[in-house]
């Protein structure tokens, strides 16, 4: 009888271990799907907000010259309470327009790396305890004067 108890105990332990592995994998898959959906949602919001900046860039104007840019960004930020801030930045990552009261001097290096790696498309990453998303603003001659 003691042998049978040890066999059942081992079977239960193996089943619990397999169950824990499946729970862990399902959690990781959910997090990846959620991250992708949030990134797509923020990317869509960013592309809707970029109109005035894209028009200025096509005319060859600086992104810093867009009138009422902070107001446009603030209105877009208010569409979703989960958005902490929206920034428009130049090619070097320096922030030109923003919705924050205490902004960083530039976008994080992880965001610059994601932006460089994607080559002009919409990008999103989870970095430094937050979720970041953005895209390049198309300009004259295929050069991007910055992003959002």
Structure characterization notes:
This protein is α+β, with helices and mostly antiparallel strands and 148 residues long. A two-stranded antiparallel ribbon has the order 1-2. Strands 3-4 form a two-stranded antiparallel sheet. A two-stranded antiparallel ribbon has the order 5-6. It is built from four helices and six strands; from the N terminus they run αααββαββββ. The chain has one domain (39-147): 2-Layer Sandwich (Beta-Lactamase). Helix content is 51%, strand content 14%. The model has no long low-confidence stretch (mean pLDDT 79). It is elongated and about 85 Å long.
Quick description:
By secondary structure, the protein is of the alpha+beta class.
Which structural traits does this protein have?
elongated, alpha+beta, 148 residues
Topology as a string of helices (H) and strands (E): HHHEEHEEEE
Query: What strand line-up does the widest sheet have?
Result: 1-2
CATH architectural group: 2-Layer Sandwich
Can you tell me the residue ranges where pLDDT is under 50 for at least 5 consecutive residues? Answer: none
Secondary-structure-derived class: alpha+beta
Sheet of most strands:
2 strands, antiparallel
Q: Give the overall average pLDDT.
A: 79
